[in-house]
Amino acid sequence: MATTLARVIPLVRKEVAPLPSLPKPADLYCRVVIALFLHTPQKALWLCKTCGEAWPCAQMKQACFLIEAF
C-alpha cells in the first residue's frame, strides 16, 4: 500500500499580548459610589467641590451613567 504525504502548511504561533483585565463589578461599583460621594456641589456657586467644574461635573455624569447600568 503506497502512502502519499500531503503538503502541510506549518502553523506559526504568534505571541499575543494579554488584554488588560477589566475591573470586577464590585470594584467598579465601589469606585462609582466613591465618585458620587466626592463630587458634590457647593451650595452657593454650584461648582463641584472636588474638581471645580460646573455641577454636575463630568465625573458625576459618568458615575450616574454607570450606576444606571447596574
Model description:
This protein is mostly helical. It has two helices and no strands. The protein is elongated, with a radius of gyration of 26 Å. It starts with 24 loop residues before the first helix and ends with a helix. The model has no long low-confidence stretch (mean pLDDT 79).
Protein traits:
single chain, mainly alpha, elongated
Topology:
Blueprint: H1 25-38, H2 58-69
Helix pairs in contact: 1-2
* Tally of helical runs: 2
Query: What share of residues is helical?
Result: 25-40%
Radius of gyration: 26 Å
Q: Characterize the overall form.
A: elongated
Largest sheet: none
Instruction: Determine the oligomeric state from the structure.
Output: single chain
- What is the straight-line distance between the termini? 66 Å
DSSP strand content: under 5%
Mean pLDDT: 79
Order of helices and strands, N to C? HH
Question: Which residue ranges are poorly predicted, with pLDDT under 50 across at least 5 consecutive positions?
Answer: none
Helix/strand/pairing class, anyone?
A: mainly alpha
How many strand segments?
A: 0
